[in-house]
Prior knowledge:
Helix content: 25-40%
Radius of gyration: 20 Å
Largest sheet: 9 strands, mixed
Number of strands: 9
Mean pLDDT: 83
Number of helices: 8
CATH topology of the largest domain: Umud Fragment, subunit A
CATH superfamily of the largest domain: Umud Fragment, subunit A
Number of domains: 2
CATH class of the largest domain: Mainly Beta
Amino acid sequence: MARDEKIKTDLGQRLRDIRAHFGDPDREVFCQRLGISKGSLGNYERGDRIPDSLVLQAYRRELGVDANWLLTGEGEPFASTNHSLNAKLSEEIVDVQFQDLRVSAGPGLTVIDERSAEMIGMSRRILNELGLSPLQTLIMMVDGDSMSPSITDGAVIFVNRNEQYMREGRVYVLSLAGDLVVKRIQLDLDGGITLLSDADGPAFPPRRIDPVDVERIKVVGRVVCAMSPI
Length: 230
């Protein structure tokens, strides 16, 4: 790994720690054991990409890494070699949709770094605890700090696409004229809504949406969880 290479996520750091545990071989060598490319391994370790369920299963199958530890940091890094336990772990990893978009939580309301959706591996147990189903879950990244401290810059958010109706005080991902934003909702008495930031200060003023314009807003889903970088 290059000396100045920055690791952006906790998951990326855990992946990097696994390679270090096995003697810190070069990525070109280590990736062959996992059946992935050197470039993909670099993207995963830097936190530029999130590995899908097949990659997580390769870490478990080839290296004995506990998939739930890899995703959450909870428990021990290495799973038992018991086949029944491995089968159980495999069943707990499901694919959910990840949009490599930067959802704006800042005043600019601008979508950046837009790419096509991909599937990533996620613990079914975690989704169950959040009340989410794999098919209706969308994972996105946030750009900007207007929702701090609730949602910080660079946070990964879990969005429930089943919740399309705006409710008072909840946080939603909204599409406004093609731009994606994450804001807290205030329902106004006249039928309009106000988009609120959690951060204080004049840099983050409320944004009023008149009743006639509310129907133009597309609700992507409600934010149910945010995981922030340390």
